[in-house]
Amino acid sequence: MQQTSEIISYPGLDINYYINSFYTLISRTFPEFIGIIETTIGYVVGISIIASIMLFFGIIYCVEKLKEIRKRESEIYDLKIEAGYEEVKKGDTELANRWDKVKILIESSNENDWRQAIIEADIMLADLLTKIGYKGEGIGEQLKRIEKSDFQTLDQAWEAHKARNAIAHEGSDYVLNQNEARRIISLYRQVFEEFYSI
Asked: Are residues 107 and 187 in the same domain?
């Protein structure tokens, strides 16, 4: 007796099989419902195509407008950085002559000349600060407005100016020897050299 074996196949994970089975079941049970679904899907697909085209052109329009905005922003905000002060040219004849006079006075044997050298250097400092654009009533006010990061020798300028004020206000009561006078002048020199004034 021959045994025949039938091969039984299972759909397994074949999605198309289930979709087709479901579609067949619905179309036999509710034939009018299938027509509505097909019509609705047609409308949705048609509207989706139109909406996609409109969105595509909308994206292009937005990108172009964004480019214009970026261009305007760069014109407004990307300004060239300009120096906040006018750099004094190295080898300025007038400044060099004034500094030469200070050097002669500080090497004198006369204490009054040392005092005069410090006062003259302080006047040069005032001129420098004004020339590079710092505003204020007097050197003290100008120095207060300066950021340390913009003026590397700010501490030297303060120390030298305070010494000058002591000399000017205390007069002969302020004890000054030549070594101290030279030290004060060297503070002014450091400031002037930062800005190429001498």
From this structure: yes
The 10s digit of each residue's pLDDT in 99-117 is 999 999 999 999 999 999 9
Q: Give yes or no for a contact between 101 and 120, defined as CB atoms under 8 angstroms apart.
A: yes
| Residue 135: strand, helix, or coil | coil
Does any domain span residue 122?
yes
Q: Please enumerate in sequence order all residues whose Cβ is within 8 A of that of 162, keeping only pairs 6 or more positions apart, or say none.
A: none
H or E element, residue 76: helix 31-77
AA identity, residue 78:
D
Cα 184 vs. chain centroid, distance in angstroms? 37
pLDDT in tens, 117-169: 999 999 999 988 888 888 888 888 888 888 888 889 999 999 999 999 998 88
Instruction: Give whole-number Cα distances, 146 to 84, 87, 118, in Å.
Output: 11, 16, 22
Cα separation, 23 vs 49, whole angstroms: 25
The domain tally of the chain equals: 2
10 in any annotated domain: no
Domain encompassing residue 58: 15-77
3-state secondary structure of 28: helix
pTM above 0.85, yes or no: no
